[in-house]
Amino acid sequence: MTTETHITMAHGGGGMAMRALIEEVFLRTFHQGKIGAQEDQAQIALADLTLRGEKLAFTTDSFVVEPLEFPGGNIGTLAVCGTINDLAVGGAQPVALSAAFIIAEGFERARLQRIVASMAETAQQAGVRIVTGDTKVVPHRACDGLFITTTGIGVVRLGCHISIAAGKPKDVLLVNGTMGDHGAAILCARGELALEAPLQSDCAALHGLMASVLEVVPEIHCARDATRGGLAAVLYELAEASGVCVQCQEHAVPVQAEVAGLCDILGLDPLYMANEGKLVLVVPPEYAQRALAAMQAHPLGRHAAIIGQLEATHDGKGCVHLINSFGHARLMTLPSGEQLPRIC
Length: 344
What we know:
The chain is of the alpha+beta class. It is 30% helix and 23% strand. It has helices at 16-27, 34-37, 46-50, 75-88, 109-126, 181-189, 207-216, 230-242, 257-266, 288-296; strands at residues 55-63, 69-70, 73-74, 92-104, 129-138, 146-156, 172-175, 222-225, 245-249, 279-283, 305-311, 319-323, 329-331.
């Protein structure tokens, strides 16, 4: 077993140091044996996939959060959950993930081990395997510590056709919980503003929640996880893609008091702040209460709420209206820049 406490350029050189790093940190933690795990690809039996559904879902994402470790998770849990959620919102059951690591020279080995262990634990709890990956080491000035890119595959069940462009007038809009938790937690974790608040990231894998809703609601029109840009970005994408006017009731959107207070102090809007465990659903009106009950019965949907509906537009162009408690509407737009850099 190697005794180095920090990553060196030798760990990316293809020799004994790199082999030791891969075997001791990645293969051992991801429970991959040497045989098969050392191949240049993972192989998955097609017969197993076709038994689960009719279509293959495929997604990829990169993660560059700062700080790398924060209350409620770290970049590793974020990478696993984020990729699973991108599959889940299409109605797919996640099957396997790949993970590629770009590591800065001088990165603490124990910290890398903690992050990789979190990835393994999160994947195991989600019932998903991390089956292949890659490791690169770069000079310390070329990378802020650690970047992770994950790719996932899943299987979409028969008859499931969820699309951001499938929203229809009179459809009902739901969320599974409070908005802005991840962005607020990351902001506090940086320690730059001397803020102290009991905030944790909402980082969570949403495929179980989606499966619970799909069991009782045969027709989900749209689903999205509200990450960068928060709820506002999802509503804007929905309106534009479906050609509808989204009417969002501001008072109905759940927001933690601590998050609302933080946003008031800093002049931020929780509806634009990132989440990593929040689902936005659009369902026909006849299924709204059934979907709400299914979400509230799940641990990740205890604070689920109906927050609005979709309406037709005269010109077919999408728009988003935020309705306040007095019934007055204002137009919501996408922010011109990133509110909080490096949040996912």
